[in-house]
Amino acid sequence: MRKIALFAAASAAALTLAACSEATEDSAATTADNAAADAEANMEAAGDAMESAGQSMEAGAEDMAADADHAAAEVEADVQDETTAEAQAD
Q: I want to staple 87 with a disulfide (CB 3.0 to 4.6 A). Which of 10, 61, 76, 83 is the partner?
């Protein structure tokens, strides 16, 4: 009788472990899926931020080029004794 009770208790413990293991696997799969979704969202946000920074840099470079052209025209106007508009037309 003791052997039967011991066997029943061991069987119940084994079933409990199996059920717990399955729940753990499901939880791990859910965690992995959530981590992948978070990584994807973070990469998308980083890409958007980089695109915005690139556009800002491009606008800044265009402004600097325009400033350099204007400064060059002023220098040319001083050297050739003409107006800045005339120097820019050259």
A: 76
